[in-house]
Design goal:
- This is CBS domain-containing protein.
- There is one protein chain.
- Helices cover 33% and strands 24% of the residues.
- The protein is α+β, with helices and mostly antiparallel strands and 430 residues long.
- Among the domains are: 10-90, Roll (SH3 type barrels); 187-283, MgtE N-terminal domain-like (MgtE N-terminal fold, Alpha Horseshoe), CATH 1.25.60; 299-412, CBS-domain (Roll), CATH 3.10.580.10.
Length: 430
């Protein structure tokens, strides 16, 4: 490799995660998401770092061999040569530092006390190889005595790889605290990609530790069969909570994959109001506007001020496509609403004084569609009017839901589109 120009002596992977990756000309080609290591013939020998998992545009995760990396630093990683753009798939002999090694429970060889891995330090050797050299760990108590538990709980140490035994028990449940912390700022779709790449045991360990709101966001981004696997693993009570937290259309998509008996069991466990929204959507054919729509758009009365409308739009939990417009109706302001009057786009609101009423800004050119409208008709309306959402009304002109562009795309793309995002390019100069 010819040496690491500008690299530091020791790099800690959890801190390196998210670091931007550049080509020699200074153009960014992606971000570091993990390091790939292989164990040696004996566990006392330091594992070898063979490369990095790099996220490139389009959220593809690709493998970059360590031999193509010319500089590693917390601020930037520099690569050279061609990067294979096929989706990274871990081989049986490989271990991912972030996904597999972080949070793993080990024992200090000297006294047998248990520790949990919080970070992993790699160093370049004289022969230019990179190896896992140090482990940043935290002691965990086995409650042997009250005194030892009090004295040792939470203490952090930095140990050489050879100072620990690996692992304590391969069948033992592994914490996911550090892995979740490393992806705290990532979008739900990115975390969904991470979950899909983990083996089943590790995936469920992460699922157990994610809070309900974050996990609900991730479930909305997973293929339905993967989401069903998660629900089957977390039990009836938590499944009901997750489905209540999700957008009703996404919850309906998941329940639609289950047997009628199992779906009804989950609906019975949900709050009645949330369950009713999902039942409404399940009544429609999945290939129609009704099957795609969400029943929770922003619905406001025409007297609402722009300032108040923008306050509704600013709610953090709203998906971007839902927050792009408000739907103006007569009372009641829940689906099915009073008479639908029109749309007000957020950009239009920003052009007017905050005290004005949104009823003066109505876009009435967009004709709402009935729930029975096929997906193609929804897509045509979105394209014709440059919209990100389409109102769906019943025969009485009551708003019953809204179809957003992301759900239309999801329905029109092949079922395996998440797996095939890398097919548009085969390699990139990096």
């Amino acid at each position: 490799m010819g040496g690491m120009s500008g690299s530091t002596d020791r790099i800690f992977i959890a801190r390196l995660a998210g670091t931007r990756v550049f080509d020699p000309l200074g153009d960014q080609v992606g971000r570091i998401r993990d390091a790939v290591i292989v164990y040696r013939s004996t566990m006392r020998r330091r594992p070898k770092v063979i490369g990095f998992v790099v996220e490139v545009p389009g959220r593809r995760r690709v493998f970059v061999p360590i031999g193509r990396v010319t500089s590693i630093d917390v601020g930037a990683v520099i690569t050279t040569g061609l990067v294979n753009m096929r989706r990274f798939a871990k081989r049986a002999t490989e271990t991912l530092v972030m996904a597999d090694l972080l949070d793993q429970r080990l024992r200090i060889r000297e006294d047998g006390s248990p520790v949990v891995v919080e970070d992993v330090g790699i160093e370049q050797q004289r022969n230019r190889d990179w190896e896992v050299a140090r482990l940043f760990v935290r002691r965990v108590s086995e409650q042997r005595t009250a005194f030892s538990a009090l004295r040792r709980r939470g203490e952090t140490l930095q140990l050489d790889w050879s100072e620990v035994d690996h692992p304590v028990d391969a069948a033992e449940s592994q914490s996911a605290t550090q892995l979740i912390a490393a992806y705290q700022e990532t979008k739900p779709a990115d975390l969904a990609d991470v979950l899909r790449e983990l083996d089943q045991k590790r995936r469920l360990e992460v699922v157990r530790e994610l809070d309900d709101e974050r996990l609900a966001d991730v479930l909305e981004e997973l293929p339905e069969d993967d989401a069903v696997e998660v629900l089957n693993a977390v039990g009836l009570e938590r499944s009901a909570t997750l489905l209540e937290t999700m957008q009703p259309d996404d919850a309906a998509d998941i329940l639609g994959e289950l047997s009628d008996e199992r779906a009804e069991q989950l609906l019975q466990a949900m709050e009645p109001d949330d369950a009713e929204d999902v039942r409404t959507l399940l009544a429609y054919d999945e290939d129609t506007a009704g099957g795609l729509m969400t029943t929770e758009p922003i619905i406001l009365s025409p007297e609402t001020s722009i300032a108040e409308a923008l306050a509704h739009v600013r709610r953090q939990e709203l998906p971007a496509a839902v927050a792009a417009a408000v739907f103006v109706c007569r009372q009641p302001l829940e689906t099915p609403s009073g008479k639908f009057l029109g749309i007000v786009h957020i950009q239009e609101m920003l052009r007017h004084p905050p005290h004005e009423s949104i009823g003066t800004l109505l876009d009435t050119e967009v004709e709402p569609l009935p729930p029975e409208a096929p997906i193609g008709e929804v897509a045509a309306l979105l394209a014709a009017y440059n919209l990100v959402s389409v109102p769906i009304t019943d025969e009485g002109e009551h708003l019953v839901g809204v179809v957003t562009v992301d759900d239309v795309l999801d329905a029109l793309l092949p079922e395996d589109w998440r797996d095939n995002r890398e097919t548009s390019r085969t390699e990139v100069s990096a």
